[in-house]
Design a protein that fits this description.
mainly alpha, 6 helices, 271 residues
């Protein structure tokens, strides 16, 4: 609030009047300038604090991504063994647990990455003070992080769906054939969710390496989690039909490549 005080004596001449007006104007300009300067430095400090919070959150998430990778590997090992044991039990009903090919275990650790700093910044007026290109890069990072966290939430639901028989029995060998079929289907779904969570994490660590993320789970490793035919072998395995498919795919890839180049050029203009 700026206070304007009346003169202590009346202006006797036009010259005194204009000097008085000029003094008031200069005083107002100085006061406004000081106020704006203080606000400018305050805003700069707010932006600095927001960036520091985001930087700390990123550094924590880089470490957390490796932790999540370790958990997903452990779950892949546990769930694939559990599936093998359940399938064995389906073929050999009543097999004692100590004679199954693997233990039936439902390990779960709902580890997630942090998003507090980003979610705090988004609705804040401070966001308007940060360059759009910087915010867009952060938004891209957190979209990948959100996908990882959402996948982890689905994992929690899937594991509880798979092991719900434990509400009535602690021994899977006592389950009926129908119950085993249900648990096997739920375990296959659980493995699928674990694979998708690992894929989302692989995308995060590979695409966002500019933020300091390092490889956590590789595509080659993920390829060992499923039994499927690699794209390069489609022509070999499926004969002429596979080779025809690869020709069509190559043409499609070339078209998509051109479109991505055009899109990249527009992205550079936007920055």
């Amino acid at each position: 609030m700026l206070d304007v005080h009346p003169p202590h004596h009346a202006a006797n001449t036009w010259r005194d009047f204009f000097i008085h007006i000029a003094t008031i104007v200069v005083g107002l300009l100085i006061a406004v300038g000081i106020e704006q300067g203080v606000e400018h430095f305050h805003q700069r400090e707010q932006v600095k604090q927001a960036r520091e919070a985001l930087d700390l959150e990123r550094r924590k998430n880089i470490i957390s991504s490796q932790i999540v990778a370790g958990i997903l590997r452990r779950q892949q090992d546990a769930y694939s063994g559990t599936l093998a044991a359940l399938q064995f039990l389906r073929v050999h009903p009543g097999t004692p647990l100590d004679r199954l090919p693997a233990p039936i275990v439902w390990v779960s650790n709902n580890a997630t990455l942090d998003t507090v700093a980003w979610k705090t910044l988004q609705p804040s007026p401070i966001a308007a003070l940060i360059p759009t290109s910087e915010l867009q890069r952060d938004a891209s990072l957190y979209r990948h992080i959100d996908r990882v966290n959402e996948a982890e939430d689905r994992m929690w639901d899937a594991v509880n769906q798979a092991n719900r028989y434990e509400f009535t029995s602690a021994n899977p060998s006592s389950l009926s054939a129908q119950q085993l079929d249900s648990v096997i289907a739920a375990t296959e779904n659980l493995l699928t969710e674990n694979f998708e969570a690992a894929t989302d994490l692989e995308n995060l660590c590979r695409i966002e390496k500019g933020f300091g993320f390092t490889p956590c789970i590789t595509r080659d490793e993920l390829n060992t989690w499923k039994h499927y035919i690699l794209g390069a072998k489609v022509g070999e395995v499926f004969g002429q039909a596979g080779r025809d498919y690869l020709v069509r795919r190559a043409a499609s890839d070339e078209q998509l490549k051109k479109l991505r180049v055009e899109l990249s050029a527009l992205d550079k203009e936007e920055q």
